[in-house]
Design brief:
Layout lengths: L2 H28 L5 H9 L1 H18 L30 H18 L10 H24 L3 H5 L7 H19 L15 H19 L8 H28 L5 H15 L8 H26 L7 H19 L20 H28 L9 H6 L1 H6 L7 H12 L1 H17 L2
Helix pairs in contact: 1-2, 1-4, 1-8, 3-4, 3-5, 4-7, 5-7, 5-13, 7-12, 7-13, 8-9, 8-10, 9-10, 9-11, 10-11, 10-12, 11-12, 12-13, 16-17
């Protein structure tokens, strides 16, 4: 066992796990005050659900056997017969690789939660994630990262452009279409609960993303360092790109915009980070962010699909662009496992064509399977809350909790302000006592 590689992957796994509560803060800060608890719970509870699913059948369906190049078998259910101490090619224990992949299985379904906040029933979301993981996510892992047909074709995806971001983004779009818009959609912008949480969540996600991207090298080597560097360059480029576009089109930068641009860069570089140069990372970050910005501001309003927090606009669109541009900028000079250079590095159309194929397949596969799951599941579990509960807010309607416990205090203070004359004497006495004991 390589102590250096194993230590590196333990830290990377922790960082990837840390991304999910970061995402909870990011989404929780963006929604209205009536849906904060529901949104954060919907993201965070996946930590428990996805871990149990992964141990039960996820690892087996992803990495055990091969059925038609699409999915694994069930011979390793509940890790039965898996030698967790066996070493991988980078000299890390199989058990550690299993844990690292488990963290990806947690964060991926959490991404599409942002599309459906404020109107989806918690029980439906819980049930959907179970079937989605088994029928869509685990087969995608197998097809791209194990012994599946996309891997055999030569498709490359360093850390999850197809498996994670396009997959989650398309799911977000399909769920939004079936769920329908919020009752007040298009009637003014939603007041964000706490944009400081959005910044906090973005910072946590950026830090955690180094475990996501650099960790996917599965060793402490030059490829991991390159993935770290390209992730940083692409993200910085995306942040500045979104901010400059906002300044040109809106006249001023916004914190929410800067945070959204940051995520677009992290998403776009994910499939390419271990295969491209810093120049490639720069162009991937810029082009993907411009595309996402155009979709969110120009095309989305015309589609009429209420993707509440732009899960598709960010993860789907930037993921698609990053996956395709990997076929343009990938080079053997960065990573010797690249068998065919990208189009811009003299490799011709082949790798670019393979990346187009993988991207198109992921979109089609996820769309068809999502529709099937939703149509069948709706017959058993009601998908959407009623209008009264939506107006009340899912925090109270679904959970009986509220995020802001200063609400009652605020109402008391407003009473004091309304009847200030009656409280002048008491307030003066309190201030005098305060000054006396300072």
């Amino acid at each position: 066992m390589s102590a250096a590689n194993s230590t590196f992957l333990v830290l990377s796994s922790i960082l990837v796990l840390f991304m999910t509560p970061g995402l909870a803060f990011f989404y929780g800060g963006l929604v209205s005050k009536r849906n904060v608890v529901n949104t954060m719970l919907s993201v965070f509870m996946i930590c428990g659900l996805a871990i149990l699913l992964w141990i039960l059948v996820g690892y087996s369906l992803s990495f055990s056997g091969n059925l038609g190049g699409v999915v694994g078998d069930l011979k390793s259910v509940w890790l039965h017969g898996v030698n967790l101490a066996a070493l991988t090619p980078t000299k890390i224990p199989t058990g550690l690789y299993m844990i690292f992949q488990m963290m990806f299985a947690i964060i991926t379904p959490a991404l599409f939660v942002g599309a459906v906040v404020g109107r989806i029933r918690f029980k439906f979301l819980l049930s959907f994630i179970i079937f989605w993981s088994i029928l869509i996510y685990y087969p995608m892992v197998h097809m791209v990262w194990d012994n599946g047909f996309l891997a055999h074709l030569g498709v490359i995806d360093f850390a999850g452009g197809t498996v994670v971001h396009i997959n989650a983004g398309i799911t977000a779009l399909v769920l939004s279409a079936f769920l329908g818009p919020r009752y007040n959609y298009g009637k003014g912008e939603t007041q964000h609960y706490n944009i400081l949480w959005v910044l906090l969540g973005t910072a946590i996600l950026w830090i955690g993303w180094y475990g996501f991207n650099a960790g996917s090298a599965l060793a402490m080597n030059g490829v991991a360092i390159q993935a770290f560097l390209t992730t940083t360059v692409a993200t910085a480029t995306s942040m500045m790109t979104w901010m400059v576009i906002d300044m040109i089109t809106k006249g001023k930068p916004t914190l929410v915009g800067v945070c959204t641009g940051t995520l677009c860069g992290l998403v776009a570089i994910t499939p390419a980070c271990g295969y491209v140069t810093t120049t490639g990372a720069f162009w991937i970050g810029m082009i993907a962010t411009m595309t996402s910005y155009a979709f969110i501001t120009l095309l989305k309003p015309r589609l009429g699909i209420d993707d509440a927090l732009d899960a598709f606009g960010c993860h789907g669109v930037s993921g698609i662009m990053g996956s395709i541009m990997t076929g343009l900028f990938a080079t053997k000079a960065v990573n010797s496992t690249v068998t065919i250079n990208g189009l811009f590095y003299g490799g011709g159309f082949k790798l670019f064509g393979l990346q187009l194929l993988a991207t198109a397949f992921t979109i089609a596969f996820t769309t068809v399977m999502c529709i099937a799951i939703i149509v069948l599941l709706k017959r058993v579990v009601k998908m959407r809350v009623d209008v009264d509960e939506e107006k009340l807010g899912l925090d109270q309607g679904e959970h009986g909790e509220v995020a802001d416990y200063t609400v009652s205090m605020s109402s008391e203070l407003s009473d004091i302000q309304t009847h200030s004359n009656e409280f002048q004497g008491q307030l003066a006495k309190l201030m005098a006592n305060h000054e006396r004991f300072r």
